[in-house]
Amino acid sequence: MNSHFLMAASYAQGFALSRSRCARACTRSARALRLAFCAAVAAGAFAALALTGDAQTKSPFTPARLWDAKTPDFRGMWQVRDTAYVNIEGHPAEKGIAAARSIIVDPPDGKIPYKPQALIQRQENYKNRATADPSLKCYQAGVPRATYLPTPLQILQSPGNFAIVYQDNHAFRVFHPDTRPHFDSADWWMGDTRYRWEGDTLVADVVALTDQLWLDQAGNFHSTEIHIVERYRMTGVDTIEYEARIEDPGVYSKPWTLRTVLYRIKEPGARIIEDECLEDANGVRHHISPSDPKNLLKSDYSRWKKPAQK
After folding, report:
1. CA–CA distance, 225 with 211 (Å, rounded to integer)
2. CB atoms inside a 10 Å sphere around CB 78
């Protein structure tokens, strides 16, 4: 009986010692974990401070100047590299065209804030997009669509003058100084543009756009009440950040903003090429391939020719 009692006491003592050792080990482990956590927090805070310091000390890109030593030099051939021209709200990959995320940065959901009735019209446009897109009939792309087409544009510049020539359908825009008032009661395919410089950013105010324009191939649209504020800012030697804030109280419930990037075309000999259209028998104009021999013609006047005299 005594031997059993002594054995049980020995087991109990050993168990108590084991619990004590385990408790001490757990305490040490908890202390180590706390120390490791504190070290990680401190390292993260230090890294955040370092990044903040870098952001504060890193100055924005300063573009080269024109010969007046004042005007930022944006001259060159430029083109976007995504497929937002299909749908600026984003789209999946299809028929050899890469997918693209929405280029709308405000609102955050990447969607155009249509009014209910306007959304119905947009859905109708989308259903008929294979034939209803005005660009298929060789109408000019308008603003801002001309900027993110899959074709290049060329910026021409001198002190006090700014213009953009687009490859698509021979379109061009002359940016007038903002001291000149906008034209009244006008609706043009490329609108009426006034510009000013805010530091190294060119800010353009655009109105007088026709309501026959689409913003992309998906049928996104606007009315003649549209007002656009564009911002062109060089973020590097070969990149321009393009932003457009768009408002149209008849179509959208609030203003919205899109943003994309233009990349410099640096291939030797790069230039704007002819983008031609020809009229069919019904008088409807269609784009033709640059390699088509008929592309040398500005228009097809054959249907107006008088029949040969017999």
Report:
1. 8
2. 22
How many C-beta atoms surround the C-beta of residue 215 within 10 A? 26
Residues, the chain, total?
Answer: 310
pLDDT in tens, 253-281: 999 999 999 999 999 988 888 777 777 77
Rounded CA-CA distance 262/215 in Å is 17
Integer angstrom CA distances of residue 130 from 86, 212, 218, 307, 309: 12, 16, 9, 36, 42
Dist. CA 209–CA 225, nearest whole Å = 8
Residue with tokens 């149209």: 248
Indicate the pTM of the whole model. Answer: 0.76
Q: Read out DSSP for 12-73?
A: HHHHHHHHHHHHHHHHHHHHHHHHHHHHHHHHHHHHHHHHHHHHHHPPPP---B-TTSSSB-
Count CB atoms within 10 A of the CB of residue 267. 7
- The answer to whether residue 87 scores a pLDDT higher than 90 is yes
Q: Write the CB contacts of 234 (distance below 8 Å, at least 6 apart in sequence).
A: 61, 63, 72, 74, 200, 240, 241
**Side chain identity at 157, as an amino acid letter?**
Q
Count of CB atoms within 10 A of residue 230's CB? 20
- CA 104-85-193 angle, to 5 degrees, is 75
CA dist 122 and 220 (Å) reads: 6
What are the structural domain ranges in the chain?
76-264, 276-310
What is the CB-side half-sphere exposure of residue 267 using CA atoms within 13 A?
7
How far apart CA 10 and CA 17 sit, in angstroms, is: 11
List all residues 6 or more positions away from 131 whose beta carbon is below 8 Å from its beta carbon: none
